[in-house]
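User: Need the bound-state model for 4'-deoxy-4'-aminopyridoxal-5'-phosphate:
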Amino acid sequence: MYNLEQVRQDFPILSREVYKRPLVYLDNGATTQKPRVVVDSMVNEYYSVNANVHRGVHFLSQQATELHEGSRETVRRFLNARSINEVIFTRGTTESLNLLAYSFGEAFLNQGDEVIVSAMEHHSNIVPWQLLADRKGIVLRVIPMNDKGELLQEEYHNLFNERTKLVSVAHVSNVLGTINPVKEMIAYAHAQGVPVAVDGAQSTPHMAVDVQDLDADFFAFSGHKIYGPTGVGVLYGKEELLEKMPPYQGGGEMIQRVSFEKTTYNHLPFKFEAGTPDYIATTGLANALDYVTALGMDQIFAHEQELTRYAMEQMLAIPDMHIYGQAAHKDAVISFNVGNIHHLDMGTLLDRLGIAVRTGHHCAEPLMHRLGIEGTVRASFGLYNTKEEVDVLVAGINRVRNMF
Ligand code: PMP
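Assistant: Bound-state model below.
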């Protein structure tokens, strides 16, 4: 296990106060705080290297290109992708999934074809498919879940038919914390000849991911949720599929030759990367991935599992507590309501105690409908959170409860 106190020193923001109280940051599902190495690497690049990447003849441009392409190799290693051609830089999970829906949709989907998603998807793994449904008349099928927040595997199997062309499912639910058995779900889909996309926004920060071991056909994640900068993310895709898919956006970088008569496209991964990439953010992302890798993804997972177990035990003991998501395999996310205290009131009062949690529908309105609620309070843990912070949260919830 890494030294928690030492690790917390790497994150300057963790030592600040809000309302004269020590910050207890439990909104890691929305975004994570940044270690000094990540921010420093970006500042250093701006101050000493900055130049636009690719095709530059001058020294700085070549150095910036080396850094940017080196970051792609870091991502490849982190995901254990076969090739850097399979690593497409995007603005984040949302853009990755929009790219996928658009381009996979253009290449492979026709009127009446079906895409399977789950009841616990984030809006960014629902709405891009609905836009495609409007454009192409595809049909969305939804895997239901039980009351613990586990996807019903038999029902999942029953959704497949000859029109099923893709499964797109969250690795970890940002509301329930459920760790979905994506490896098994992928194996099942493959046995039916159907590829699978995984939304890894909430899994990559917490557990080791190996896209070859999962045999995922596509995998999306965001830099800012894994201690990296905002504005950068990744779409991994198997090369043979990406080769068959058309560009998502047009512009510089993604072309080979342009004429008014005929334009040809660049090879992978550049075919999908129109315009100047955020090459500073890719450096930050690579440093973030190196940072968590050095701590050890398995150590991070073990620490957060212990925190979650500790928090669940104490929170379940609070009278009138309702926790949404009690799957057997659960990640570091706890969504709850207490009695009939409105989630917004709970969140606002916890905030006054220095505790940052998120409230609302968490961009998963269909899931809220399934649960029959409007919203929850959500505490989500990161690698730097402590049991003392869980104690502060539990005391805070009890205090708010006593006020009502
Ligand atoms: N999917 C899941 C499961 C998420 O939790 C999030 C972020 N809350 C997203 C997708 C979207 O990520 P981003 O806003 O970074 O594009």
